[in-house]
Amino acid sequence: MYQVGRFLLVSCLWCACLASGSALAAMGDDPLQSPQWTDLKQRYLGAARVVFDPRVVVTGPKVAEDSMNVPVGVKISGLADVRRVLVVADLNPIVKVLEFSAQGALPALHFRMKLQQGSPVRAMAETADGVWHVGGIWIDASGGGCTAPSVGRGTANWHETLGQVQSRVWPGEQQSRVKINIMHPMDTGLAPGIPAFYIERLALQDASGREWMRIDTFEPVSENPVFSFDFPGTPPPGLSLVGRDNNGNRINARVAQ
Fold first, then answer.
1. pTM of the model
2. Are 148 and 198 in contact (CB under 8 A)?
3. 90 with 34: CB under 8 angstroms?
4. What is the mean pLDDT of residues 158-180?
5. Which residues in 106-174 belong to E strands, given as ranges?
6. 10 to each of 13, 43, 66, how far by Cα in Å?
7. CA separation for the pair 126, 122 (Å, rounded)
């Protein structure tokens, strides 16, 4: 009996060591030491080369005061030929937050998102050579941001303001900022009885129809989303915001300048 018990104890310790080793292996060289990094990398980046790059900067609070409205900033500087940027939250039930491509605006974006729990939040920038440059931070959160219903649905007239846009411009000779607020519940589909209902495409374009920034947005973006864009010098005249949500509702508004 003693020998059998000792064998079981050794076996359990061995399995625990193997499990621990597998978890550490999954984390690999990830500076944020996320247990989901390996699967996340394979799912979104495939076999492409990946480098952790300090030029890809993600900012946000160490601890989120409101899990449904977590302010996050992405800024990429000194990195040429950025084609697109993916923003993900490793431990969210819906991992992909948004994707953007700057086509005249600077490769930077500030927004608010939902966090279901504490998680790494990453920006992954693809350059013209096919390499993904990754930066990120850990944000602690009390949780529940993705499974709670939107606040606006509690008002009887929420549908009357759906798709309304407010904007503001801070012009500058060297750099300008455009801030946009869109009225939309951005439901994740994870709250009981409420289907997913969210903005899925936005673009900033000038009077000629040229796109300066395109964003594909997903369920984890916060209700009534706010986005800030940066432009080198003064922004182009005649800017407008166009887009749609996953139910086919259209967004089309002039940007105040």
1. 0.88
2. no
3. yes
4. 93
5. 108-113, 119-127, 132-139, 165-170
6. 5, 36, 45
7. 13
